[in-house]
Amino acid sequence: MKKIASLLILLLLLSCSSDDESKTYNITLSFSHNWDGTPITNSDFNTIKFTNANNNQLSIERLRYLISDIKLESNNEVINLEAYKLIDVSNNKNLSFSPSVSIPEGTYSEVSFTFGFNNEDNDTEDGYNDLNVALFNVPSMLGGGYHYMQLDGKFINSNNEEQGYNYHAIRAVDNPGTNPTFPQDTFFKVTLGNVIISKNTTLNIEMNVAEWFKNPHIWDLNALNQMLMPNSTAQIMMYNNGQNVFSLKPDTP
Known about the structure:
It holds the Pfam family MbnP. Residues 1-20 form the signal peptide. It comes from Seonamhaeicola sediminis. InterPro entries: MbnP-like_dom. The structure is a single chain. The protein is an alpha+beta fold. The protein has one domain. Helices cover 15% and strands 35% of the residues. It is built from four helices and 17 strands. Strands 6, 7, 11, 12, 13 and 14 form a six-stranded antiparallel sheet that branches. Strands 2, 3, 8, 16 and 17 form a five-stranded mixed sheet that branches. Strands 1-9 form a two-stranded antiparallel sheet. A hairpin with a 2-residue loop joins strand 2 (28-35) and strand 3 (38-40). The longest helix has 20 residues, at 2-21. The protein is globular. 26% of the residues are buried.
């Protein structure tokens, strides 16, 4: 009788262990934005209240950007979470979303995404209807495909007047026209480090908007403010400055 009882307890323990190992959860990705630590929402838009590393005073009137190939990695296993999302701060769209993929509980060595589209996704023949409707396209004379980011606003220029700027990131292009060429890829992978997935996990991802203007290139809006899309040098500078824009915000108790 004792042997039977012991066997039942063992089977029960194994069953519980099996249940624990098979737990899966849906997670949430939440995107927030700041200027060197000061939070930014669309309520801060349309007012000149920011100062970049070049001491240009500026406003933000629109901020939206594309991320793609969102995934988790662990022990050579890759879990694809979402193909792409257009994060639109101006309209509070997709600032938080939950991929439909259920994820096994545990520690993952890396969470990552691509800023923009890689060349294969960018050159998709049929395009993406939601991005087309959002007018996120790049003209065919500049290679077609889609923007990676649109950051627009005004700044106080050297004549102490308000002037518009359009900090638009796309695939770097030369020779605009019927046969454009591409000197360098300007999409990039954002790696945010390891994460622990459990019940009700939210990954809080931050963008420091000020970084777009300062590291490693201190950005002078008097010199580089508009017509940046056909300027491959400016696009490569944006690519360089974007490397430290995103971070994973630590969980708070």
